[in-house]
Write a structure and sequence with these properties.
The chain is mainly alpha-helical and 336 residues long. 51% of the residues lie in helices and 5% in strands. Strand 5 and strand 6 form a beta hairpin. The protein is globular and about 45 Å long. One of its GO terms (biological process) is carbohydrate metabolic process. It comes from Lentzea waywayandensis. This is Glycosyltransferase.
Length: 336
């Protein structure tokens, strides 16, 4: 695979949003939609430098879904049933964080002025909240970083991004386990990436260096024989066996994002190793030596099990594939 393929993302989408689940490559319409995935879709489409008219329209459709999911007080619904009825109450779960990530990215990068303005208004409405979860906050911080990079005096984004340090905390003094949690869970690299972004944009070298230290440790822990070996869906801590399964594409995607940011900020070529390993994980350089995407459909497989890939091609895994393959540009730019 030479770059992001959006064909399966289009296949999973309709005039409402993005279907969450698939059986093989076919959308499971009966399971409906979730904001989590639509917001991630908005992230990957917004950060593409050149979108076709079809994909530009899809990005606007995703933005409309995110805006529809937002309540007047800035919280969000997450699950929309196939009958287009919300199945939950507005809240501050991971979907809130990913919604702000998507909105911030659209506000900063969309080529359409009306999209940028609408996305920023929704971002500002949501940015007043502070969630209970560190990962939720980290996802939101990435959206705040996008807004702040585009507008360095945007106060709500600066305040939200500045608060990430109180959620993550400093690395522990234990060299074997500097991670601020007792266990690795999911999308782990989003925590150091948020710190790196905050330190960079808020001109705080200590916060940036704390994030780089955590990312360096995480890349080492999630690598085996120079290939990526992500922690499993159930998490991992010292003393537990590796490799472990089921490995989730979101873990490789989070690593690619964090290492690409670290490279852009430091120009240190060691971070390119993390980007390469993440891309290679999808292309078969993983614990089972199996390709983690369908070259014909453009879909990402839902996980790496002890017996091989789960060949269902749902939204989360496909977006993780697209997100990771977007960083091929980082590798190409690094080699001139």
């Amino acid at each position: 695979m030479n770059g992001p393929d959006f064909a399966h993302l289009v296949r999973l989408s309709d005039d409402t949003g993005l279907y969450e689940h698939a059986e093989g490559p076919l959308p499971r319409i009966e399971h409906g939609y979730c904001l989590d995935d639509v917001a991630r879709g908005l992230v990957v489409l917004s950060r593409e430098p050149h979108l076709s008219a079809e994909l530009t329209a899809l990005a606007e459709q995703y933005l409309a879904f995110v805006a529809y999911a937002q309540s007047e007080d800035g919280r969000f619904h997450n699950r929309l049933g196939p009958a287009r009825v919300w199945l939950d109450e507005p809240g501050l779960g991971d979907w809130w964080g990913r919604a702000l990530w998507g909105l911030g990215t659209a506000a900063a990068r969309s080529p359409v002025p009306a999209v940028r303005q609408a996305a920023l208004e929704c971002f500002d409405r949501g940015a007043r909240h502070r969630p209970p979860s560190v990962r939720t906050m980290a996802f939101a911080a990435l959206g705040a970083a996008e807004v702040l990079a585009a507008d360095p005096v945007h106060a709500p984004a600066a305040e939200l991004l500045g608060d990430i340090t109180s959620y993550v905390g400093a690395p522990r003094p234990d060299e074997n386990w500097p991670w601020p949690e007792n266990r690795l869970f999911y999308a782990n690299a989003v925590l150091p990436e948020a710190l790196i972004a905050a330190g960079d944009l808020l001109s705080d070298d200590k916060i940036r260096d704390d994030g780089l230290r955590l990312l360096d440790w995480l890349l080492a822990v999630e690598s085996t024989d120079f290939h990526l070996s992500p922690v499993p869906a159930g998490g991992w801590s010292l003393g537990e066996s590796r490799p472990a399964f089921d490995q989730q594409p979101i873990e490789a995607a989070a690593m690619a994002d964090a290492c690409a940011r670290a490279y852009r900020i430091t120009a240190d070529p060691r971070w390119l190793a993390g980007v390469r390993r993440s891309i290679a994980w999808f292309n078969g350089d993983n614990d089972l030596g199996t390709v983690m995407h369908d070259e014909q459909t453009g879909g990402g497989y839902d996980g790496l099990t002890p017996d091989g890939p789960n060949i269902n091609q749902g939204a989360e895994s496909t977006l993780a594939l697209i997100s990771t393959m977007q960083h091929l540009r980082t590798l190409l730019e690094s080699t001139g």
